[in-house]
Amino acid sequence: MSLTNETKPRKFYYLLHPRPVVVIITQCPEGKVNAMPASWITPVSEDPPTIAISIDKSSFTSECLKHSNEATINIPSLNHVELLYKLGTVSGREVDKVSEFKLKLIKSKMISTPRWADAIGWLEAKVNRYIDIGDVRLYIFEIIEYGIRKDVGSEWGWNTYKANLVHHGIGKGFYTIGRLIIAK
């Protein structure tokens, strides 16, 4: 039985958006560092601390993860919407995103891949395994270290009145809690 007030979005995953967006930083071959925004991310275990991120198999980020087996997962704020959109519109194979977008990187505590200095939170992670599913590779990361800026959170997590966390809708659409922000 079908209800008359139903509709079907163009893609199934639109029903699961908006989603928190992160910037994945990876060490790549020949010493290059890459940055990629991603929103298909979820925690999967507390013990051991583990997350999963779905990344296109053909992406430069997948190539870099194969090379280094580690990444930093950096949490941006509302101030980074334009940067997030731009980072997602070019490939690290063709563009040195760190230089092009003037990303300031700092040393991580436990892994060799750097963190993004402007992130309001971060996770340092090692690839535990991956599973190929259709056009994506689901990476399972074990969290080695993590942290949050004191001005936006505490041991209990985010202060959502101060953190201005960003969620990705579709395309140029970004949200924060209660507001839609459209990238230019």
TrEMBL record:
Residues 15-158 form the Flavin reductase like domain. SMART domains: Flavin_Reduct. It comes from the Archaea. It holds the Pfam family Flavin_Reduct. Gene3D superfamilies: Electron Transport, Fmn-binding Protein, Chain A. Keywords: Flavoprotein. Its cofactor is FMN. InterPro entries: Flavin_Rdtase-like_dom (IPR002563), Flavoredoxin (IPR052174), Split_barrel_FMN-bd (IPR012349). GO terms for molecular function: FMN binding. Signal peptide: none annotated. PANTHER family: FLAVOREDOXIN, FLAVOREDOXIN-RELATED-RELATED. Belongs to the flavoredoxin family. This is Flavin reductase family protein. It comes from Ignisphaera aggregans.
